[in-house]
Write a structure and sequence with these properties.
This protein has 130 residues and is mainly beta. It has one helix at residues 30-33, and strands at residues 2-8, 11-17, 62-65, 70-75, 82-83, 88-94, 97-102, 107-112, 119-120, 125-129. The longest helix has 4 residues, at 30-33. Mean pLDDT is 79; it is low at 50-60.
């Protein structure tokens, strides 16, 4: 078994693979695949630091982003509302589960960037709170 780290975009995944035979890595010939060969990346020297969850954001934190893809079913605030940290801003339906998106900090809702019925993706800005 061999442990490998695969990075896609800005996310890294640790995987374990079974080596069936020891042979040099295969590099496709440009004419056979239509893709020019590339140099193999050297193995990482040490694992990257593990990300820790952010601490509670201070007041005026800015953008509130969607934690997952889903459909906006209920919006509980409007522009100009004052919210406390932990207040439910909206309800997101993902795979028939209701997920509450809460304010990371106290502040004023400066912008509501979605409406009920919108489909959102993970990381998409939903609100601006200052």
């Amino acid at each position: 078994m061999k442990k490998l780290r695969i990075t896609i975009g800005d996310r890294s995944y640790d995987v374990t693979v079974e080596v069936l035979e020891d042979s040099p890595p295969h590099v496709a010939h440009p004419s056979s695949s239509g893709v020019p060969p590339t140099a193999a990346a050297p193995p990482p020297q040490s694992p990257p630091p593990v990300a820790t969850p952010p601490a509670q954001a201070p007041a005026g934190s800015g953008s509130v982003r969607s934690p997952m893809s889903g459909s906006v079913t209920t919006i509980n605030v409007k522009q100009g509302d004052q919210v406390e940290a932990g207040a439910v801003l909206l309800v997101l339906d993902a795979m028939k589960m209701e997920n509450k998106v809460v304010a990371p900090a106290s502040g004023s809702v400066k912008e509501v960037l979605v409406k009920e019925g919108d489909t959102v993706v993970e990381g998409q800005p939903l609100f601006v709170i200052q």
